[in-house]
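Sharing in case it's useful to others searching the archive later.

Someone asked me privately for the predicted structure of PsbP C-terminal domain-containing protein, so I'm posting the question and my answer publicly. Question first, with the sequence:
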Amino acid sequence: MTAPSSGGAASPEPTDPGAGWHGVESDGVQLKAPPAWDVRMEDGVHYVLSTPKDEQGFRDGFATLMTGSTLAASTDELASTSRESVIGDYSDVERLDDVQFRGTKFFHIQATGESRTYDLYGALLDGGTEVSVHWSFAGETSRKKIDKYINEVMATFKFAG
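And my answer, the predicted structure tokens:
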């Protein structure tokens, strides 16, 4: 396991989720979410993976999986462009240390706003394919809980391109 970056999620060893996990695939990028999560295609283009409902029926947050072609020549260039593109009421946007999920290096951008937190993990894959997983959580969700959710899903990352 790679140590977590300051304020960021750790990079766990590969995991083989059990039965009932929801699998999604886009441009050869595969992720899985635990059974209690809601997974759906949005606008016929992006997958949205929503955390389990709490006791009141609310979800802490969600992730959006996006893939596509990019002209970025490196992960650093992709991270720089992505950092500049963060929109919303976020007062603090910073790039944290890169992390590895199943041997793929992802940049990590984290932002904090009045009512939401935002984590972006992105990577430049073979053949000029970009993958980004945008995570958004209610502001009252603890960092520990956020990192647990992120690690559950990101540990299942696989590129079969």
